Amino acid sequence: MKAQQERSTVREKDKFESHTVSDIEVNKLCQQFSHHSDIITAYLVQKNIQFFPGKPFYVLALKRKVSFLEGIQEPDHSKLVNSLLEENEFLGNVFIFILNNHLNMEKN
């Protein structure tokens, strides 16, 4: 339960490190992103975790292009996130995070 709880959120105070994903898998991910013209920037990191550290927990943080009309209201990023989760072929445990509303997380 503690491992699941630890992997259920991403916060500004969390510690991250470089991912351990192979270059081949990163290239597959880049190809996957090429189908999403609204993705501006993508960061793939691993969250430092205490429970079951042998099972990496990846965070995919994305900046997304938002249309003018979308920007007037709170943008709905769920369509993009759901699409990426469905297309996810290699990352076991991944949390997809949209940075647009949390730009202070980008430095982490």
By secondary-structure content and strand pairing, the structural class works out as alpha+beta
Number of helices: 4
Integer-rounded radius of gyration:
14 Å
| SS elements, strand count | 4
How would you briefly describe this protein structure?
The chain is an alpha+beta fold and 108 residues long. Helix content is 29%, strand content 22%. It is globular.
Topology overview:
Blueprint (H helix, E strand, L loop, with lengths): L1 H5 L9 E3 L4 H11 L5 E9 L10 E7 L3 H5 L5 H10 L6 E5 L10
Parallel strand pairs: 3-4
Antiparallel strand pairs: 1-2, 2-3
Looking at this protein, list some descriptive labels.
4-stranded mixed beta sheet; 29% helix; 108 residues; alpha+beta
What does this molecule look like?
The protein contains 4 helices and 4 strands. The protein has about 110 residues and is of the alpha+beta class. A 4-stranded mixed sheet has the order 1-2-3-4, covered by helices on one side. It is globular and about 40 Å long. The model has no long low-confidence stretch (mean pLDDT about 80).
